[in-house]
Design a protein that fits this description.
The chain is mainly alpha-helical. The chain is 44% helix and 4% strand.
Length: 394
């Protein structure tokens, strides 16, 4: 948007043959004018510009309404574009110059003229220019257009920056609530990631879909938990967000993410909304195991009180108690034992027990807790032939 106005060219200067590639001679040097796919031309730097069109750009850049008005009255082009593809209207929107925007619109400036998909409305939305955006919408700006480089719409931009009134205006103007950008993010996800609860509420009232996932497989509730956005999470839970939905790639639920992040308040609220405390991810890791791995005793207590299963085993056959023992989490081990975890349980995969894992990793405090609780290791595993001694040859 800071491109120099010196690169501007007017519609009148483009001449006939808008779809052709022309070549002209200025001072013995050849200059080419290339027509874009949208019918506008970007002229190379030896092109002589009309003073009126130049003045339109310069006035739009600095918000000089009088200069813009005089230039327009002198047949300056309101739809000229500079070398970056920006029009005077886009520059005026970037600066929030309402008077200049109004003058350009009165001179039939194209509200949907874009630079790589970037429109004046998107610029106004990003800057929170409510009055400017309203003028653009009233003059036919497309609220559903998407930027080609990112796939983001004006609503994405307003939501990500917390412009609640502007988001409401764009919804009323036909902005697509559930449209996703190239990363699969909806406007609701953008609002929640940034903690803009009011914008999220506006989008939910307009019917935003709570069950969509982005390219990372995360739902909007998972994003709220991942970003520790408590107010947004509360809003989403009350709006009926699917709290047992897992990440499409990893299977991690919002509860697992809350536990892994050590946010006890988020964990408690999700459990209060009847989340499945035993729902495991693709590696068969449950919320209780996540608490055991990271030593989050308060979260583990919340889960155990809600009915977390201490006998559930992961893909290695290890229970939450065994994982806590392996990581030296003494407090979680004590809690699991209080809720009936078996300290002598042996994995069907590698024959490890909580006791052997504590010993292997040098956690003597955990080892003593397990032995005191009755943990033991059999000298011989009856289910497996003892191959530690050499067999006698026949």
């Amino acid at each position: 948007m800071g491109a120099s106005a010196a690169g501007a060219c007017s519609t009148a200067e483009r001449g006939p043959g808008a779809d052709a590639i022309n070549s002209r001679d200025y001072g013995g040097k050849r200059t080419r004018a290339v027509a874009s796919s949208h019918g506008k031309k970007h002229w190379h730097d030896k092109m002589r510009l009309s003073a009126s069109t130049q003045a339109v750009f310069e006035g739009a850049q600095c918000g000089d309404g009088r200069r813009v008005l005089n230039a327009l009255n002198a047949h300056g082009d309101a739809n000229g574009v500079n070398f970056a593809g920006y029009s005077p209207l886009m520059l005026a929107c970037g600066g929030g110059y309402r008077e200049v925007v109004a003058l350009l619109l009165q001179s039939s400036a194209d509200t949907n003229l874009e630079a790589d998909g970037l429109t004046p409305l998107m610029i106004a939305a990003a800057n929170g220019q409510l009055d400017v955006a309203r003028m653009l919408v009233n003059c036919g700006a497309d609220a559903s257009a998407a930027e080609r480089s990112s796939g983001s719409t004006a609503l994405h931009r307003a939501a990500a920056r917390g412009h609640v009134e502007l988001a409401g205006l764009l919804v009323q103007a036909g902005g697509l609530i559930d449209a996703s950008n190239w990363k699969g993010k909806t406007s609701l996800m953008c609002a929640v990631e940034s903690g803009h609860t009011d914008v999220a509420r506006t989008l939910l009232c307009a019917g935003a879909n709570l069950g969509l996932a982005d390219e990372e497989g995360e739902t909007v509730l998972i994003k709220a938990v991942k970003g520790n956005q408590e107010a947004c999470m509360e809003l989403l839970l009350k709006a009926g967000a699917p709290h047992n939905a897992g990440n499409r790639s990893t299977g991690d639920t919002a509860l697992i993410m809350a536990v892994r992040g050590g946010n006890d308040q988020l964990c408690r609220r999700i459990v209060q909304f009847a989340a499945n405390v035993n729902l495991a991810n693709v590696e068969r890791v449950t919320p209780l195991m996540a608490a055991a791995d990271n030593g989050h005793a308060k979260a583990a207590h919340i889960l155990l009180l809600a009915g977390a299963d201490t006998t559930f085993a992961d893909i290695d056959g290890h229970t939450a108690l065994m994982r806590a023992a392996r990581h030296g989490q003494a407090q979680v081990c004590s809690l699991a034992l209080d809720f009936g975890a078996n300290p002598s349980y042996s994995s069907a995969v590698d024959s490890e027990t909580a006791v052997t894992l504590a010993a292997r990793h040098g956690h003597m405090d955990v080892y003593q807790i397990l032995i005191t609780a009755g943990g033991k290791v059999d000298a011989v595993n009856e289910a497996v032939e003892d191959v530690s001694k050499p067999t006698r040859a026949a």
